[in-house]
Specification:
DUF5677 domain-containing protein, two-stranded antiparallel ribbon, 4 strands, mainly alpha, about 65% helix, two-stranded antiparallel sheet, DUF5677
């Protein structure tokens, strides 16, 4: 067994930084124009709607990953707040992958949803019975909905898509290939369920964070070490999601040189995530809660 030089959390951070460079390459080609990588000229061939909305979402996912890279230096209780950020990164990478591969009609609807949701935000009702609130910026919301946003009018039509997360992953597989979908599926499996429990404040979500990975005596140092394990799992999940997007973007457009590099990043991710814990030196516990991030 090869012994790693860095703790797992630091090796994952380094791999994520490398992945971010290839995300920047994809975003550049999609938004700025052609580029050359390893003597291959990369030209974006996506339809305008697919290019615009997928780039928008992938950029947001990349920003969330940057936040997670800073949070990976945290120890203890603040680690719990990494789960919602990881969920946002995963779903943004998934939606970017789905929309770059879908039809112009589907991508255009997603773009239109931005204006609809902005209008809806100021014309909505929330609550039940006497405990409800309503705000309006529009004198006749129903008329505006029918005239300005007819595609979002009617029961079950108020979202940019009716497909749930597993269905979107399946569509990525059908449209952009099994390689992209399998990476996104792994990210979904690692992130979605736990992040939902924590985001929604469920009893299990709280219990999981404070107890998972802890063995033996319950000490402060043991809790900090357990929190590092959770950070490692979070980064592994988000790295899978990022690989899924890169595989979809480069694969859908037959960009072979960066696609081969994505495979190398993914293979290294698999190597790191499947090695036993004794293959890595222990992670530093000297970063105080909330310090040095």
């Amino acid at each position: 067994m090869d012994i790693e030089e860095l703790p797992l959390i630091d090796a994952l951070r380094g791999l994520a930084m490398l992945q971010q460079e290839f995300l920047r390459l994809a975003l550049y080609v999609a938004s700025q124009g052609p580029a050359t990588f390893e003597e291959e000229r990369l030209v974006c061939s996506l339809g305008d709607s697919q290019r615009r909305i997928s780039t928008y979402l992938a950029m947001g996912a990349g920003q969330s990953l940057e936040t997670l890279l800073r949070m990976a230096k945290l120890r203890g209780i603040p680690v719990r707040d990494a789960y919602p950020v990881a969920r946002s990164a995963f779903e943004s990478f998934l939606n970017a992958s789905y929309l770059l591969a879908e039809s112009d009609e589907v991508a255009s609807r997603a773009i239109r949803y931005i204006d609809y949701a902005a209008w809806k935000h100021f014309n909505r009702k929330r609550g039940s019975g006497e405990f409800s609130l309503e705000i309006r910026s529009d004198a006749d919301p129903q008329a505006t909905l029918a005239e300005t946003f007819p595609e979002f009018s009617g029961k079950g039509k108020g979202s940019w898509t009716n497909l749930d997360v597993p269905s979107r992953i399946r569509m990525v597989g059908e449209l952009a290939g099994r390689r992209a979908a399998s990476r996104l599926l792994a990210a979904d499996f690692l992130i979605y369920s736990l992040s939902s429990e924590i985001i929604h404040g469920s009893p299990f979500g709280v219990s999981y964070f404070f107890s998972d990975h802890q063995t033996g005596e319950r000490t402060t140092d043991g809790f900090r070490a357990a929190a590092v394990c959770q950070l490692e799992e979070i980064l592994i999940g988000v790295l899978h999601a990022g690989c899924g997007y890169l595989a979809a973007f480069f694969g859908q457009q037959d960009m072979q040189a960066p696609l081969k590099t994505e495979e190398k990043i993914f293979n290294r991710l698999l190597e790191l995530s499947t090695k036993p814990s004794d293959a890595f030196p222990p992670a530093s516990q000297h970063i105080a809660d909330g310090e040095g991030a």
